[in-house]
Amino acid sequence: QTLHIYDASNGICLFSQPIDAKTNEIPTAQEILKNMQLKDAIVSFDALHTQKKTIEIITEQKGDYVGALKGNHEIFASEVADCFTEEHLKKIKEEGINHYKSLDKAHSQIETRCFYLSTSIGWFADKNVWKKLKGFVCYEKTVYNTITGKETKETRYYITSLNDVELCAEAIRGHWSVENQLHWHLDANFNEDDNTTTDKNAFNNLSMLNKLSLSLLKLAQPLMKKKNISIRLMRKCFGWDTEDHVAMILNTFDDETLCHAL
Q1: Fewer CB within 10 Å of terminal CB in the chain, N or C?
Q2: Closest to 20 in 3D by CA, of 11, 29, 12
Q3: ∠ CA 207-208-212 to the nearest 5 degrees?
Q4: 104: which DSSP letter?
Q5: How far apart are CA 166 and CA 112, in angstroms?
Q6: Do residues 158 and 172 lie in contact, with contact meaning Cβ atoms separated by under 8 Å?
Q7: What is the b/e burial string over 238-255, where b = at least 16 CB atoms within 10 angstroms of the residue's CB?
Q8: How confident is residue 204, by pLDDT bands cut at 50, 70 and 90?
Q9: Which residues are 139's β-sheet partners?
Q10: Angle formed by the axes of helices 200-220 and 231-240, nearest 10°
């Protein structure tokens, strides 16, 4: 397993750390976060990393956070879910300040996302145990299929140090870019799932090179003649005419930009 810390704003994988077989990714993430400057940054994470120590490290590094709540904190998640009653959601929606809604249409689907931020957390007995905790977020996602007429709905809950619902919404949606902008590309365009390399060091080195290549391809994407060109087709173009495409990158970007991407 490999732990990735991803910059969703710039589409860059900041850290790629193999997980030792004798441990898990929680302490690995905590050690990396201790050495990061997180001022003016929002750290988002799934429920596995919703840990008191992890959040303490983030706040000590002057960062903010949005973390998911699930079964690993069953009582906590249940309490937060219970606080978002229909009456409470209606009140937040009517006030408008802590409610945000977005609508997307694509692939015969209409996705409606509603975010509710509750900053009235005085009732939560452990609010001082979770550093800088300011509110809870209820995220409702409704997907309507225009062909089948089928509608699905899911609800998720988060804890946060933010008091701006739009920032929370941006962090929650941005969190999933690590899946569709990093993991998906590595699996679909670099065939990492089919990699049969058995040597751990060799596999990690190859994975690192794949991520370096992906960063350069994303940097070069706006320069390509064909608009909306896919990463897969770009790899083919670089393979067919390597020298000209590499020269295009080197002549367009300065050393600082290239180092940042890599």
Answers
A1: N
A2: 29
A3: 120
A4: E
A5: 15
A6: yes
A7: beeeeeebeeebeeebee
A8: confident
A9: 115, 156
A10: 90
How far apart are alpha carbons 48 and 226 in whole angstroms? 41
With both helix axes pointing from N to C terminus, report the angle between 242-252 and 231-240 in degrees, rounded to the nearest 10.
110
Q: Give the per-residue pLDDT at 164.
A: 96
Higher pLDDT, 200 or 123: 123
Collect all residues with Cβ–Cβ distance below 8 Å to 249 and sequence separation of at least 6: 216, 219, 220, 223, 258
Q: Which of 124, 144, 143 is closest to 135 using CA atoms? A: 124
Query: What is the C-alpha separation between 132 and 136, in angstroms, rounded?
Result: 12
Cα dihedral 63/68/72/74 (nearest 10):
120
The model carries a pTM of 0.77
Return the exposure string of 55-88: e unless at least 16 CB atoms fall within 10 Å of the residue's CB, then b. bbbbbebebbbbbbbeeebeebbebbeebbeeee
**Is residue 46 within 8 Å of 69, Cβ to Cβ?**
no
Banded model confidence at residue 258, pLDDT cuts 50, 70, 90: confident
SS3 sequence of 140-184: EEEEEECCCCCEEEEEEEEEECCCCHHHHHHHHHHHCHHHHHHHH
Q: Kindly report the backbone phi and psi dihedral angles of residue 198, in degrees, each rounded to the nearest multiple of 5, phi listed first.
A: -95, -20
HEC profile of 15-50: EEEECCCCCCHHHHHHHHHHCCCCCCCEEEECHHHC
SS3 119: coil
Q: Is residue 1 pLDDT above 80, yes or no?
A: no
Q: Give the span between the Cα atoms of 137 and 47, in whole angstroms.
A: 14
- pLDDT for 217 equals 87
